[in-house]
Amino acid sequence: MTVSEAVAARRSVRGYLDREVSSATLRELAVKAARAATGGNLQPWHVNIVAGEAMRRLKAVMAERLGSGELETAAYDIYPRELGAPYRDRRFQVGEAMYRHIGIPREDKAGRMRWLARNFQFFGAPAAYFVTVDRGMGSPQWADLGMYLQNLMLLAVEAGLATCSQECWALWPETVTRFLGTPPERMLFCGVAIGYEDPDEPANRLRSERAPEGEWLTVVA
Question: What CATH number has the domain spanning 3-80+120-206?
Fold first, then answer.
């Protein structure tokens, strides 16, 4: 598989087979991904792998937390509070496309909330990564995290695995950091579900569109 093929194949997968991923594979992917570009060689990422019994415990914890109706203060704003065009439109369009695939109309608010709750069960994935970063790091180091995550997800494609990066975990920083035992000087950035794709899951038919290059590419020559 070429890099171009892996980039073209990668997408967010929201339904997984009941099939474990070996701990050796999970570790290997995490280690290989650390060859990501990083300014000043800071390598600001910290990574936790959750699988097996630990994953079952975390899913149970999250089911209880969601059922409690309580909320936590988010680690950060996942989107800008004033999200203008064209970004707001793109977000709306991909969301509506998702709900069309899974057959939940806009008026079915309860159904959509149940679907959103599946995020916190990793959409059935048997394993996940959590990425944290020292609180003193700035925007350039957050970019390094993105490059690490892209490496991780492309390596997963090469290994025949599927992923879904999940910034939604930033909504539950206290629960996650307590579960992981993360030191207070580090903050939660995101989770990444990983496993073998369920080909029968309707949500997995979604492939988000990309804006035409004329909207974002400028060549200066």
Answer: 3.40.109.10
